Amino acid sequence: MKKKRAVSCLLVGALLLGAQQVWAATVHYNDSSVTGNAEEWNAWKENWNNVANDYTYVSLTPGAAATEINFAWYNEGTEGSPIVYFGTDRNNLTEYHGASNNVDASLTGGKNYCYNYVTVPGLTPNTTYYYAVSKSGVMSPIETYKTGSFDNVNILYFGDPQVGASKGQPQGEGALAEGTGAANTAARNDGFAWDRTLDIAMEQNPNINFAISAGDQVNNTGKAKEEEYAAYLSASALKSLPVATTIGNHDSLNADYSYHFNNPNPTNLGMTQAGGDYYYSYGPGLFIVLNTNNYNVAEHEQSIKQAVESNPNATWRVVTIHQDIYGSGLDHSDTDGMILRTQLTPIFDKYDIDVVLQGHDHTYSRSKILYGDGQTHNSYEFRLNEAGDDYDWDNAYNTATGEKIGLYPAEGDAAAQAALDRFAQDNHCYTIEESGSMSATDPEGTLYMTANSASGSKYYELINTQQDYIANRSQNWLPSYSVINMSSNAFRITTYQITDAGNVETIDDTFTIYKTAGRN
Q1: Residue 206, Cβ neighbours under 10 Å: how many?
Q2: Structural contact between residues 135 and 81, judged by C-beta atoms closer than 8 angstroms
Q3: From CA 306, how far away is CA 285, in angstroms rounded?
Q4: 300: helix, coil or strand?
Q5: What angle do CA 252, 254, 255 make, to 5 degrees?
């Protein structure tokens, strides 16, 4: 999620409605010193220096199919240790070997690390496994991982942990700092909150198969941020929870994301410095993850095509992207969030995508069932700033003509406002199939979900007027998550929020898509 402009701007959505609204940087975030259990928070602070300087936490990712699981981790030095010890008998684990390579030392303070990738095959449903990894030739402590049903699948879906995004916000007598290493107190705050959300979500839903993150695992863009990844990966639930992560704009401009996550079936399409598109199958679902920080939609279509051809009979086709092309947040939904809308919508129609999971907006929304209008529209993109270390968030560019479209025109600049109006009108490229019901049977179109922040490191306002394509939305300044249940004939999603006291509340009733005849 991009940083809000520090200066006041005119909201695009309001302008389109003929009204003006001024907004400034968000002040909403989750203060872990207040919402956390005091004893646990103090223990976390005491241990923060150790966490922030340990770059070797293990990440688990779904494999290419439910019968596989992928591992990634760092070890110190220039020699990798790509060995996972895995099996059902903790006293007799089998060695699985993989590959390793060097980490860019400029991202780790000049200290040498290797990253390791290992895939473990042959998993069976509803089975308890034990694992450890080799770190510089030393076997790590043994952890537990349990598979669930491969037919009735439960998925935790969340958006934008963005560990470190609470920088500048008050805590105690001071303010949270970006810093580096242990001095990154914003990462300290958000890492605790992220761990809290996962613990509560898993306690409420102990039978989760895996999780999906809609991107922005960390905050610093184009900079070294290993303490943020350390805080993210240190969450206790992640020792036993595989997560299919998405490349967010804050993850996109360094290679460190690609070091930390061993994604299955990488296509080498939609590439940025962090990596590109990938896909995997799990039970009745085919899951396609697109790096939409790359605006080459033709490449994303190739990735979708590869994925569909790998599993053409999957009942459900689910795409995850970071940018919410159908969202309802104040900062993004009517500006950069819809830049990809005109090009992705017909591709999702063409490949019969059932659900698109999104992040980026730090608000919650659920769309109506949508499909394209069948008309030809222009395509747009963001470009990097002159320094190349972030995106130019103030301007969209027409990919055919090169026209520069200011997303926040100055008051009284009629020409700039007219260009923005044309851009917004061109992005009205959808048709509403379903409205108002909490279920849909064999729909033609696609459901678009946008997840709020799972850590509460940063929240944004909802846009003034709810768009016609939105069925429900919420912003209560609380961390949230969704639970998906997927079977051969139903896809259900329910969304919850966590109060400051740690209570779980439903913020949207269960929405269900039914299929009566599988995939045609």
Answers
A1: 9
A2: yes
A3: 15
A4: helix
A5: 105
Q: Smallest Cα–Cα separation from 382: which of 281, 253, 480?
A: 253
* Alpha-carbon span 95 to 262, nearest angstrom: 18
CATH of domain 9-51+147-514: 3.60.21.10
Separation of alpha carbons 243 and 208, rounded Å? 11
Residue 119: CB partners within 8 Å, gap ≥ 6?
63, 64, 68, 69, 70, 71, 96, 98, 262, 264
Which residues, in sequence order, are bridge partners of residue 113?
Answer: 76
CA angle 6, 9, 15 (to 5 degrees): 155
What the block records as the tokens of 404 is 């520069």
- Rounded to 5 degrees, φ, ψ at 341 are -60, -45
pLDDT in tens, the chain (520 residues): 443 333 223 233 333 333 333 333 457 999 999 998 899 999 999 999 999 999 999 999 999 999 999 999 999 999 999 999 999 999 999 999 999 999 999 999 999 999 999 999 999 999 999 999 999 999 999 999 999 999 999 999 999 999 999 999 999 989 999 999 999 999 999 999 999 999 999 999 999 999 999 999 999 998 999 999 999 999 999 999 999 999 999 999 999 999 999 999 999 999 999 999 999 999 999 999 999 999 999 999 999 999 999 999 999 999 999 999 999 998 788 888 889 999 999 999 999 999 999 999 999 999 999 999 999 999 999 898 888 888 888 999 999 999 999 998 999 999 999 999 999 999 999 999 977 799 999 999 999 999 999 999 999 999 999 999 999 999 999 999 999 999 999 999 999 999 999 999 999 999 999 999 877 5
Residue 148: both structure tokens together: 């669930």
Q: Nearest CA to 260 among 292, 217, 298? A: 217
Residue recorded with tokens 């949230």: 480
Q: How far apart are CA 99 and CA 299, in angstroms?
A: 27
Closest by Cα among 56, 185, 164 to 108: 56
User: What is d(CA 250, CA 229) in angstroms, rounded to the nearest whole number?
Assistant: 12
Angle in degrees, 0-180, between the axes of helices 38-52 and 185-204, rounded to the nearest 10: 120
- Count Cβ atoms within 10 A of the Cβ of residue 490 and give its class: 0-12 exposed, 13-18 middle, 19 or more buried: middle
Q: HEC states along 9-20?
A: EECHHHHHCCCC
Per the CB < 8 A criterion, the answer to whether 152 and 131 are in contact is: no
Residue whose tokens read 């696609």? 446
Contact 224, 107 (CB under 8 A): yes
Using DSSP's 3-state secondary structure scheme, residue 317 falls into strand
Name every residue whose Cβ is closer than 8 Å to that of residue 490 and which is 6 or more positions away in sequence.
512, 513, 514, 515
What is the rounded CA–CA span in Å between residue 511 and residue 437? 8
**518: alpha, beta or left? (left if phi > 0; alpha if psi -120 to 50):** left
